[in-house]
Amino acid sequence: MLTGTFSLYHFKAENKQYHFERLERKESAIISHINYITRDAQNSGLTNDEWREILALRLPEISSVHHLDLGVYSSKGEFLAGSLLYTNDPKTLPSTITVDAAAKPGQAVPLHVVERPPYLIGTRELRNENGELELIVRIPYEVSANTIPEEDYDFLRQLAFIYIILFLLGIVLALFLSNYISRNMRAVSERLKEFRLNQSNEKLEWRFKDEIGELISEYNIMVEKLEKTAVELAQSERESAWKEMAQQVAHEIKNPLTPMKLTLQMMQREKDLNELHEMAGNLLEEIESLSHIAEAFSRFAQMPDMRLEGEDITYLTNRAASLYLDQGVRFVSTGPLHARVDKEQWTRVVHNLIKNAIQSIPSGYEPEIAVTVAKADDKVMISVQDNGGGIPKEMQHKVFEPNFTTKSSGMGLGLALVKNLVNSFGGAIGFDTSEKGTTFIIVLPLMNLKQK
User: Fold this and answer.
1) Every domain of the chain and the residues it spans
2) Which residues are CB-neighbours of 295 under 8 A, at least 6 positions away?
3) Considering the domain 211-301 in this protein, what is its CATH number?
4) How many CB atoms lie within 10 A of CB 73?
5) Tens digit of pLDDT for each residue in 130-168?
6) Of 6, 57, 71, 324, which one's alpha carbon is 20 to 30 angstroms from that of 287?
7) Bridge partners of 133?
8) How far apart are CA 142 and CA 370, in angstroms?
């Protein structure tokens, strides 16, 4: 639009300049023609009427030759003769005109435009050999209402057509480039979404050294650094976990060692066989406690080999829960439901959850523990619900950590072991807790009997 507007303005100015120059050429030719036919009459002191007789017959001829109307005036600005073959507008040749007395000999009066209709009026003096003013010639030059030639309009139309084509091509190119850029940016975005610290991440490849190439290069560098950092972090976490575990095991082992030492010292001084027998029994109990601690730690540190088979979860869970009927445990189910588990390890899972539920009941409360097995879509859902005081909010995120426990004794490996076993069965475990109690929920993939 700016190019077209500028071109239009330029064409108008150029066309106007063309008409000015053309009128000046016509003026010079007409003045020379009039000077030629009136040369003998100049400098003779002719009256206006005499001049009219000379000019009346020749002006139509001059007008016809130059295709322009003209009017001739005396040195005082009085109309002598004229021709209106082309304009047919008497106003262009008034009866008198103002003579610029200050005009220098041979100087043309400047052209001016008369509006409605538009004319360029050229006024030129004709002087004799002595430099005296003889005649004034007035030439009206009609300018077309369309100040721009048709060929210029054709050029503007062609220019507009070219610009439309370029505009459409620009849109297509912009869409292509934007889609090209966004597609590669989406690829980077998808890779960022798939990025995981605990696994190997694939690097991106880019064959151009442009802005996107720099971005992808930085991404690949970040992948290398993060993978290295992840390995270091995992190693640090393992070391930290084992340090905490070692502290916990050392604490648990140290507790029975003190009474064992005291018992042995007393046995050295004691001579009564009955007392010695009783002390030996206490010593064996403490040794058994140490054995349980070592066994629990061994079970958590090294999972036993699994023998996953299709088992009736309802039957196995009911058999384990029936051992605690006298402790407020009741069992509810909707019928036989099968899943692939290790029979012995599943029994251990149920025992751990029920014991954890019984131990969560505050002193002085009657335990009410519900063990439920039900079908949920294509899953088997097992829940153990107690009426304890719930798990405090600040401790909920540590429930399945290896050294977490809310009891005054024990290593806190029970729930961590349960989670590891459930994960090995292809299931998941979670919990829901409040002031009225806690419910642990296990979800296992349901197995059809045909699959067994």
Assistant:
1) 2-142, 211-301, 309-451
2) none
3) 1.10.287
4) 25
5) 888 889 998 888 876 556 667 777 888 888 889 899 999
6) 324
7) 127
8) 111
